[in-house]
Fold this sequence. Notes:
Blueprint: H1 11-22, H2 28-54, E1 57-60, E2 63-66, H3 68-86, H4 96-111
Antiparallel strand pairs: 1-2
Amino acid sequence: MSAPPPKHLSARAKAFWGAATDDFDLTATQGEILLRALEAGDRADQARVVLDREGIVVQGRDGPKAHPAVQIELTNRRAQTTLLEKLGLDDATDDEEAAAKTAARLLARRSGRGR
């Protein structure tokens, strides 16, 4: 039985959470790492929405400069990648179904506790 996903996660992150917790008992540490990775992914996605709407360049006091959301997206995408690598999920994709299958396969191989 999977643990319910944290309510503050996006629908995509909740789907990934469900796939990762459905068949496997994550340790508390693994669960925390997964949560932080999904939160970072959500923050990066939120920054991307802002950038798509406002553009990557804004007018600063001294002329054009990178939109602050560029750094937010970059920092959180790197954090997400690093955390997923810690769980052995670094080849998971943006496609929800493929990501779910990848998460289940890799967690089973890594933990040796698959059903």
